[in-house]
Amino acid sequence: MNMNSAIVHPYDIELEHLNVADPAIFKAGREEAYFRRLRDEAPLHYCQDSAFGPYWSVTRYADIMAVDTDHARFSSAGGITVGGAGGTPMPPKTESEQQGPESRPQFDGFGMFIAMDPPKHDVQRATVASVVAPRNLAVLEGLIRERAGAILDSLPLDESFDWVDRVSVELTTQMLATLFDFPFEDRRKLTRWSDVATTPPGMGLTETQEQRRAELIECLEYFTKLWEERQQSAPANDLISMLAHGESTKHMAPMEFLGNLLLLIVGGNDTTRNSISGGVLAMNEYPGELDKVKAAPQLIPNMVSEIIRWQTPLAHMRRTATESVEMHGQQIAAGDKVVMWYVSGNRDPRVIEQAHQFKIDRPRARQHLAFGYGIHRCMGNRLAEMQLRVLWEEMLKRFEFVEVVATPERSYSTFIRGFKRLEVRLHPR
Length: 429
Hints:
Layout: H1 23-27, H2 31-41, E1 44-47, E2 55-58, H3 61-68, E3 74-75, H4 120-129, H5 134-153, E4 161-162, H6 163-180, H7 188-198, H8 209-231, H9 239-245, H10 254-285, H11 287-295, H12 300-311, E5 316-321, E6 325-327, E7 330-332, E8 337-341, H13 342-345, H14 381-398, E9 399-404, E10 409-410, E11 419-421, E12 423-428
Helix pairs in contact: 5-6, 5-14, 6-10, 7-8, 7-10, 8-9, 8-10, 10-11, 10-12, 10-14, 12-14
């Protein structure tokens, strides 16, 4: 089965030929049945033939946890996605980009600290982690509430519109511009670069790999100017200043700088924005849950965790085996790709009761895998939760219901599990 093939029911495919890393499955919203079969019949599954080469799928919650916390035997340095971002490899590196494997770990052709192992991962992550420290989050909450309210008050009440663009993207992009201290008037450039980084050519954003690379180099050039400005100024509490002054990051090669930028942009944009959209869709599919939170607004924090589990905005992360590892009676060889399917682990009934149900009062709702686990757990998870919490608090003040009026347009990606468009109509209180 390849990326352009018709979607076949997973039980009509011989198990050995089943390929869950087909972006068409995700775009059609058909992935659940595929993962259910793998969890039940082949919790460690080897796909020999895919657009990204052979890979192992890990689909049960407990097994994903085991891989995600074993960074000695399962390395991030070989890349963190089954293919490149959005499911396509980047073109060959140019001569100027030949930095060597240690200084330039692979993710879509660029270096970033999430695609590193300790100790380099730890020191680079620590350089920027303070931007989402509790003290900073407390400061940011008021700003998020002000912006969320302004965005919601600007929405039309007498016509349908795209929730993704008007709310999900706008709120997260404003927040991202603040974290970078990025020129506010250019904030939609961040959205564009995030989308280009995670969308393969030919899917409506760029036509060729060359065009895609050119846009990402434009991103690098724009941020390099900001970097140079911040280096000449006193250290400040924004991400670019932190990178420019950090001992472990201030001498990064250009491609490593770009890689870390893309990590922070995608991490701060795609995940939150798709959970914002996914929450609206979930409330349409399970209207009884909306009634629950209207009657008991104190459920909102738990509801936010359930939305993130339900959506699982990053479908997977990949590791590379550093040595031979036995799992479920099979042998993973050193150098093999091992893909942790978070979207499957979050639907595993062996750990999560009634995992296929959306339940905002679910006990221990934060036990989900959507943020990853171990040393690579999402740095901005508390910020994402806060943005969602504040937005829903403000939504419930204003609207009885946000009605989805058309079939959602989903992303064509094995990595970003999200939405390109979600047409809605508001029902005010």
